[in-house]
Design goal:
CATH architecture of one domain: Orthogonal Bundle
Protein name: Competence protein ComQ
CATH topology of one domain: Farnesyl Diphosphate Synthase
Family: Belongs to the FPP/GGPP synthase family.
Radius of gyration: 20 Å
Cofactor: Mg(2+)
Structural class: mainly alpha
Keywords: Magnesium, Metal-binding, Transferase
Strand content: under 5%
Largest sheet: none
Helix content: over 70%
Number of strands: 0
InterPro entries: ComQ, Isoprenoid_synthase_dom_sf, Polyprenyl_synt
């Protein structure tokens, strides 16, 4: 898939360079931010391209422009999320006021560039982008309010925040090719985002630093499980979350409880439930074997 990352990256460069309504300073910062994130690859843009290719008989080169537009939206969300959480080391965290303008510009450029393509069904693609972008923003708002402290509400929140963006990327590719979107693609697309979020939640707890969800008093599946237990470690964490200023957290005891106590296994089991549902939906969709293998890799 490296060739596809390169194609999307080239299209991103063209989009940024050819946008006449932004000034030199804004363009320079946008380029720098894009380069900073390039190393992680363009998963969302690739999801769009793969689903477009699966359902069309005639490749329109504008699909790479659409994939680049989706990545602009994703980068804008990453920037906003990092500015809100204040826990990232990217350069945009050093100039939050200016970086917010960059993020807003990318949001507008995303829908604008899809609308300017030659696709017959570009209207549906823009409509799909707007719908799922708003759902993701709503999920982000719920995450910031930090009230999703039990399994069902937490899963509903990450389905919106994370699942909406992966689902959107798959559906835009399908929409451009067929003029319609399907429930199966929407469902497994959403589940991929949920799986990725749960993996990130688990990873967050492996480093005892400023990105650790527990230290930041945020909720995730392992933390929800830990808080539900009745033992000394769980009690100390509950006191910490409730604002007891004399609570001293024993990170070694907490890390041991998260692993040996079943919290991580619990989160992994929920992830595997979503994986099973995603694979079931994926079987009914006519994707190439290579595309299916790529999607399955995202579900691991």
């Amino acid at each position: 898939m490296e060739w596809l990352d390169n194609q999307i990256n080239e299209s991103l460069d063209i989009l940024i360079e050819s946008e006449t309504l932004i000034g030199m300073e804004l363009r320079a910062m946008l380029k720098n931010f894009k380069e900073e994130k390039k190393i992680v690859g363009y998963t969302f843009g690739k999801l769009c391209v793969l689903h477009y290719e699966a359902f069309t008989d005639c490749l329109n080169e504008d699909i790479y422009k659409v994939a680049a537009a989706i990545e602009l939206l994703i980068l804008s969300y990453d920037i906003i999320d990092d500015l809100q959480d204040k826990d990232a080391d990217y350069s945009w965290s050093n100039t939050p006021e200016l970086s917010l303008n960059i993020a807003i510009a990318m949001l507008v450029m995303a829908s604008k560039n899809i609308r300017e393509t030659s696709f017959r069904h570009r209207g549906l693609a823009v409509e799909t982008l707007e719908k799922y972008a708003l759902l993701s923003i709503n999920g982000q708002q719920l995450d910031l309010l930090n009230g999703c402290c039990e399994e069902q509400s937490y899963l509903q929140m990450i389905e919106q925040k994370s699942g909406s963006l992966t689902g959107m990327s798959c559906l835009i590719g399908e929409a451009l090719a067929k003029g319609i979107v399907s429930t199966q693609v929407e469902e497994y697309g959403k589940y991929i985002g949920v799986i990725q979020q749960i993996k990130n939640d688990i990873q967050s707890l492996k480093t005892w630093g400023r990105k650790n969800d527990l230290l930041n008093k945020k909720y995730s599946l392992p933390i929800i499980y830990l808080l539900s237990k009745e033992n000394n470690v769980s009690k100390s964490v509950r006191n910490y979350y409730n604002g007891d200023i004399v609570t001293i957290l024993d990170n070694n005891a907490i890390e041991k409880e998260l692993t040996a106590g079943g919290a991580i296994r619990y989160a992994m089991s929920i992830k595997n439930i979503y994986k099973h549902k995603a694979l079931s939906d994926l079987e009914s969709v006519a994707l190439s074997n290579a595309s299916k293998e790529y999607l399955k890799k995202l579900m691991k």
